[in-house]
Design brief:
The complex is a heterodimer of chains A (about 475) and B (about 450).
Chain A: H1 5-20, H2 25-49, E1 56-64, E2 69-75, H3 77-96, H4 103-122, H5 126-135, H6 137-147, H7 152-181, H8 197-211, H9 220-227, H10 230-253, H11 257-262, H12 264-284, H13 288-308, H14 312-343, H15 354-357, H16 359-372, H17 379-395, H18 403-420, H19 427-430, H20 438-456, H21 459-475
Antiparallel strand pairs in A: 1-2
Helix pairs in contact in A: 1-2, 1-4, 2-3, 2-4, 3-4, 3-10, 3-14, 3-20, 4-5, 4-6, 5-7, 6-7, 7-8, 7-9, 8-10, 9-10, 9-13, 10-13, 10-14, 12-13, 12-18, 13-14, 13-17, 14-16, 14-17, 14-20, 14-21, 16-18, 16-20, 17-20
Chain B: H1 3-13, H2 23-39, H3 53-72, H4 78-96, H5 100-118, H6 124-153, H7 168-185, H8 192-200, H9 203-230, H10 234-256, H11 261-281, H12 288-317, H13 328-331, H14 333-346, H15 353-367, H16 371-397, H17 410-428, H18 431-437
Helix pairs in contact in B: 1-2, 1-4, 2-3, 3-4, 3-9, 3-12, 3-17, 4-5, 4-9, 5-6, 5-9, 6-7, 6-8, 7-9, 8-9, 8-11, 9-11, 9-12, 10-11, 10-16, 11-12, 11-15, 11-16, 12-14, 12-15, 12-17, 14-16, 14-17, 15-16, 15-17
The chains are: A mainly alpha (about 475), B mainly alpha (about 450).
């Protein structure tokens, strides 16, 4: 078996599975779970094979020598961590969508998505990276457009167009890099060989910033996240936004550390603006899911702040915060979706007293919410602390103002808990049943356990981060 | 026997068996044999004609696409089938033309066959489309012949291959010929006829006109004119690139406003003509030739496929506007899937030929130093998602307005499967196109 199979087999399987079992969603769901589990196992296998430094070469396929173009698969610790994270999320998202309607098509799209996402994190060839990067849009477009809420068509097309247009800047940057260096493989490019570094840097940066998303390019996200069905929102936040951050690390900061240092203040400013702006919007928001979406943007702003330091500490903090963000925001989205499913409303003013109707669900919501605002013994605390520390170590004490952000997030999260979970039982909540399938609930419990596990014992992620970025300081 | 002679001979003799049911099968057989002979390296083999690897490869693609079109035809469509075979033969001759003389003659032959093709008029709308095609075709012919006359006046012979050392006067003459050809390529400001013609003639004819003929003319022109293009000064190159971006922007903008699917695809065809002009402007790059060939191959598969699907939908269900498409995915999932894949390919979504071809062609532009033009082209390509995704929205996101399921037709589905296989194959495997240009 070649490693290219990991990418193309799921894409083919998506079509075959749907063609054979279009009326039997349970079978496709089983295929999906098996596929993701296999991918997860392969990713663990890759993790154990990683060399002490540098990349593990998995072969090159479909070579076009005249164009220096080949599907070269190389992974390092960073890519394997992203693979592990994505496949784990895909499994949990599948469990969370256990009772999804039109399930054959839904799970086929997830299977196809998993192939594209493997490609994104495994290839080091710039053009193939772009191919998979864009390919992830398609399943998301259909997932939002078919299973989404009332404004789903608007949200799906806006999401598709917005991110696709931004990707074109990315593609132009990749063209310029190849023109100036003569190679498509990111591991072979020397920063000094890029003749117009500032132009390339900005094109790349904007291309990735839209996906992340950074202020002022974030406007596609609230629509897409709110209209998408809850498991897909979790996937968008947990995988798609991570692609943006991964792209920034691999193709901007690792590729051009010097130019990135020169532009550090732009990155810092945008990161801070994103974090604060989204935090303020979250406070203002009455719509539960939109509040979670803005909280998600705000946390990605923190990731950007950590990345802007261009140091090993900053990159490690960013990686931890990325993983933490995936595990924290996903259950919040899922629970928001469940509440909507039961009550038919996202408006926090109509809610209250959920603790009396669904105590376990409420407990997980509180746990994830507390993690999002950085409570000790959760992933959120470790993530935010390391981000703050790396930023203060690099920029000086004045950056400590970002600690205000914790207050801001405490503001919107605690207030939303007050309005949704505690307080008097509202009529809306009283008339709802809160019947939740036990497998969907189990997925939430797993999220809760992961949040606490890595909050108490963050070492595995930092080990991986040290391993990923060990050579970073030395090379630049 | 040369593939050209085979196809041409069959077309001439086809009236003899046109009253039987055998013509469709015979055509497929002949196309297969022609493809086999082509793979042995047989060209026309006459003076003024020459075959290169790239041309042979493209002729092979034409035979495959022609087979898909034949499969789509009903058994009583004999007139159109004969015209198709004639056009395939003319395409081969045009592609292999190595001199200005043979180029102009075969170009004219192809135009005249296209006039005959659209003259099978069933209503006044089709008549309007056919007349527009005819008048602009005649105008183009006039301009080309005038250019040819000027070219001979400047003392050059027209029965040798074009060189690269022309004086200003002969360059003007050649430019006139080139402008005449741009009519057929639907480049701004010679594009206006195309939207009406493609939308108004029958959809299967539109597939032949907008996909097959356009790509053949583009590849043949590039083949013949590349020495002259290489001689152009930088301002002329910028002029060409400007025409390219105006054409694609105009095509895409107007496509956004269409309610009629055929008209939308017609404007999208104009936009694609703009993309195809980028490699012409990027002649300084070693990838220009590959880029154009790749664009042509990809476009041939996708554009033929979408117009054939439209023809089938119109014939079986009277579908004309976007609103008629609503919920097609529930009425016939296979048609909806085939349609969507080709539309996404036209929109330049990866793992499909549309993306890979644009990537190579636009890279050629960057390579030749035209990166600002390429940026506009890329943004255009991204914006075009706006209307392609809108069609897909009708297919998948909306509820059907009619309950009657749509029955799949075997021949048509086979043809579409051939075309979608091409779109997928050339979207993943780029090596074949690079191989035929040399250097790999």
């Amino acid at each position: 078996m070649t490693y290219a199979t990991l990418i193309f087999a799921p894409i083919a399987l998506a079509f075959v599975g749907y063609a054979l079992f279009s009326q039997r969603g349970n079978v496709v769901r089983g295929i999906a779970l098996t596929t993701f589990a296999l991918q997860f196992i392969v990713a663990i296998g890759l993790y154990n094979q990683l060399p002490a430094t540098g990349y593990l070469d998995l072969g090159a396929f479909l070579s076009v020598d005249a164009f220096h173009f080949a599907l070269s698969l190389r992974v390092d610790t960073l890519s394997v961590v992203m693979l592990l994270l994505s496949t784990m999320l895909l499994i949990l998202v599948t469990l969370s969508s256990w009772t999804m309607e039109k399930s054959a098509a839904y799970f086929s799209l997830l299977i196809g998505f998993s192939g594209a996402i493997m490609g994104v994190f495994m290839t080091t060839n710039l053009l193939w990276f772009f191919i998979f990067w864009e390919l992830t849009l398609l399943p998301m477009f259909f997932l939002v457009g078919i299973w989404g809420g009332e404004q789903r068509v608007y949200a799906a097309i806006k999401f598709f167009l917005y991110t696709h247009v931004a990707s074109m800047l990315l593609l132009l940057a990749l063209f310029l890099i190849y023109k100036q260096t003569g190679v498509w493989d990111v591991t072979l490019i020397k920063e000094a060989a890029i003749a117009t570094p500032a132009l390339v840097w900005w094109l790349l940066f904007i291309g990735f910033a839209v996906k992340m998303p950074l202020f002022p390019f974030h406007t596609w996200l609230p629509d897409a996240h709110v209209q998408a069905p809850a498991p897909v929102s979790a996937l968008l936040a947990g995988v798609l936004l991570k692609m943006g951050a991964y792209g920034l690390i691999r193709f901007v900061i690792e590729l051009m550390p010097e130019v990135s240092r020169e532009h550090a203040l732009y990155m810092l400013t945008l990161g801070l603006l994103t974090a604060f702006f989204a935090g303020l919007l979250a406070i203002y928001e009455q719509h539960l899911k939109k509040m979670v979406a803005y909280s998600s943007i705000s946390h990605m702003g923190l990731v950007m702040v950590a990345l802007s330091t261009v140091t090993v500490e900053g990159l490690s903090a960013a990686l931890f915060e990325m993983v933490g963000h995936a595990f924290i925001i996903s259950p919040l989205f899922l629970i928001a979706g469940m509440i909507y499913h039961q009550t038919g409303s996202y408006q926090m003013r109509d809610m209250g007293g959920m603790m009396q109707k669904a105590p376990y669900l409420s407990a997980i919501f509180v746990l994830a919410g507390m993690a999002a605002l950085g409570m000790p013994a959760t992933m959120g605390f470790v993530g935010e602390l390391t981000v703050y520390l790396s930023a203060i170590a690099h920029y000086g004490a004045w950056v400590a103002i970002i600690a205000l952000l914790s207050m801001l997030s405490a503001g919107y999260l605690i207030w939303s808990m007050r309005r949704v979970i505690y307080g008097e039982l509202s009529p809306l909540m009283r008339n709802s049943q809160f019947v939740i399938h036990r497998i969907e609930f189990a997925a939430l419990v797993v999220f809760g356990l992961l949040i606490v596990l890595f909050g108490v014992y963050p070492q595995p992620i930092f080990d991986a981060a040290n391993h990923s970025f060990a050579y970073f300081g030395g090379r630049s | 026997m040369s593939p050209f002679a085979l196809v041409f001979g069959t077309a001439l003799l086809s009236p003899l068996i046109s009253h039987t049911r055998w013509l469709k099968g015979l055509s497929l057989l002949i196309l297969a044999i022609a493809g086999f002979n082509l793979s042995l390296g047989e060209g026309i083999g006459l003076t003024y004609f020459a075959q290169t690897d790239a041309i042979r490869f493209f002729e092979g693609i034409i035979l495959i696409v022609a087979a898909a079109i034949v499969l789509h035809f009903d058994h009583d469509d004999h007139g159109t089938l004969t015209q198709l075979l004639l056009i395939v033969a003319a395409s081969m001759a045009l592609l292999e033309s190595s001199t200005l003389l043979s180029f102009v003659i075969t170009f004219e032959a192809m135009s005249i066959i296209s006039f005959v093709l659209v003259s099978n008029i069933k209503d006044s709308k089709q008549a309007e489309g056919a007349i527009k095609l005819f008048f602009t075709g005649a105008t183009a012919t006039g301009i080309i012949l005038f250019g040819l006359a000027l070219f001979t006046l400047s003392g050059h012979s027209i029965d040798t291959a074009l060189g690269n050392d022309y004086d200003a006067f002969s360059l003007i003459a050649l430019s006139l010929i080139f402008i005449g050809i741009l009519y057929k390529l639907t480049i701004f400001p010679m594009h206006a006829w195309a939207a009406d013609s493609y939308a108004q003639v029958s959809h299967s004819n539109a597939a032949i006109l907008s996909a097959l003929m356009k790509t053949v003319v583009a590849v043949a022109t590039f083949h013949l004119f590349s020495p002259v293009l290489a001689q152009l000064s930088m301002p002329s190159i910028y002029g060409l690139a400007t025409l390219a971006v105006i054409t694609m922007t105009l095509g895409n903008m107007l496509a956004l406003y269409q309610r009629n699917i055929a008209r939308m695809l017609a404007y999208s065809s104009i936009a694609h003509a703009g993309y195809m002009l980028i490699p012409f402007a990027a002649i300084a790059s070693q990838f220009a030739h590959i880029g154009l060939l790749y664009l042509a191959v990809a476009y041939l598969f996708m554009q033929t496929a979408v117009f054939l699907i439209l023809a089938r939908l119109y014939q079986d269900d009277g579908i004309e506007t976007l609103a008629d498409l609503k919920g097609l995915a529930q009425r016939n999932p296979l048609y909806a899937l085939l349609f969507s894949v080709q539309l996404l390919s036209l929109a330049g979504i990866p793992l499909l030929a549309g993306f890979m071809s644009k990537a190579v062609a636009f890279y050629a532009g960057v390579d030749a130093g035209l990166w600002l033009f390429v940026l506009i082209a890329l943004l255009n390509s991204a914006l075009s998602v706006g209307y392609y995704a809108w069609i897909i929205k009708q297919l998948y996101f909306d509820a059907p307005t009619k309950d009657r399921p749509l029955v799949s037709r075997l021949g048509f589905v086979l043809g579409e499967l051939i075309l979608v296989a091409g779109t997928l194959y050339f979207g993943v495997v780029a090596i074949d196109v690079f191989k035929v240009i040399g250097g790999n």
